[in-house]
Amino acid sequence: IFRMQPSQNDVNLFVRFATDGSTFQTGAIYGAETYTLADDDGAVGFNTGSAWQLTGTTIGNATARGISGHFYLVGANNTSFPSVILGSSSHINTSGSHRSQVFTGSQIVSASDGVVNGLSFLFSSGNVANSEITIYGLDKN
Questions:
Q1: What string of DSSP letters covers the chain?
Q2: The predicted structure's pLDDT at residue 132
Q3: For residue 116, which of 88, 86, 67, 74 has the smallest C-alpha distance?
Q4: Which end of the chain is less enclosed by CB atoms within 10 A, N or C?
Q5: Which residues lie closer than 8 Å to 48 by C-beta, 6 or more apart?
Q6: pLDDT at res. 39
Q7: What pLDDT is attached to residue 80?
Q8: What are the pLDDT digits (tens) for 41-98?
Q9: What's the Rg (C-alpha) of the chain?
């Protein structure tokens, strides 16, 4: 579960994973789809991205703007199948309008042997101005 505000205006939110605990993968190994719900604002999809994209439209950074959401990371410790991310988020864009989206992503097949053991949030430009991230684990037992 996350809440973030970017340091710059008009940016998208991305997530990258690490397979060694600290080196976040930047190669073209991410597949993702994002669909913005409001007024059919659009869809984003790719099979060789450098990160999972969590927004379909850009986020504002003025007072009371930012993004909040949640996602599940499935198969993080599995080297037989790609790890998958799926969730939804809500944000305020640069004009002050609400937007929401659903998103999903996966390691591409050639990268599916990497155990995901770290996540990094980043904006398309600038830094994270402030944030709150809470991680919960689910036990199948």
A1: -EEEEESSSSB-EEEEEESSSS-B--SS-EEEEEEE-GGG-EEEEEEEESSEE--SS-B--STT--EEEEEEEE-TT-SSS--EEEEEEEEE-TTS-EEEEEEEEEE-GGGTTSPP-EEEEEESSS-EEEEEE--------
A2: 97
A3: 74
A4: C
A5: 28, 29, 30, 31, 108
A6: 64
A7: 85
A8: 678 888 889 999 999 889 999 988 999 999 999 988 888 888 999 999 999 988 898 9
A9: 15
The residue with tokens 């991230």 is: 133
Reported residue count of the chain is: 141
